[in-house]
Here is the input.
Amino acid sequence: MSEAVRHRFERAAAGYDQAGGVQADVARRLAAGLPQGAAPRTILDVGCGTGNLTSELRARYPRARLWALDAAPAMLAAAQRRMADGAAREPVWINADVRAFEPPRAFDLIASSAALQWVRPLPATLARLASWLAPGGMLAMAVMVDGTLAELAASRRAVAPDKAGAWPLPSAEHVMESLSAAGLRLVAAEDRAWCERAASAAALLDSLRAQGVTGGPPPSLNRRQLADLTAHYDAAFAHDDGGVRVSWRVLSLQAEKRDGAMAR
Here is the structure.
């Protein structure tokens, strides 16, 4: 994760949960799809943010030892407050960039929800995660891929074609290729696209800023271009029930380390 992206999420921590309903849904869906049979003893949540997936993992595997990693201290602090309920032992909290972290041990399960799309380069990152898995361990991840916020990208191209590349999400194909190159065997995959409604383009942009999604990378739009973008979006992508359409595309994957069964 770049410094610019880390700073965006650091600033967004206070209002992230109120604005990030999609992220919570993605985390719940990822956790619900994890296997029930072989319960992992050790779990690492990569890019834990405010603890959406961390709390789901603790509920699903209450006897597992759980580590939670995030590069933004404010996000990590929000997750700690969320889970300081005394209901079960807290995770081990780690403030670190996944690209520089050196784990203390191997993990039976490494999970990540709506985080790894911001990390570059993705192939090297997935190879690092694969090296942290115990033999037979599983990587489960959900990433936002190209096609997410398609209406916003189209409106930006229409009003500022020279500034069109502001939300560089990986393609589903790139994610799959990176997973294979990391030496992991695909077990399950879901490529899910759906449409939601926002009150207006301006309301959507406010929500995305609160989530840390917008605000970089450059080049940013000037005030006139921003006004043109919201006007174009409102006119071109009206929702049947009022407001505007917002598209999301999430690729969820489960992959195993190829050498043996899950560590016991």
The chain has ten helices and eight strands. Residues 144 and 250 are 5 Å apart (CA to CA).
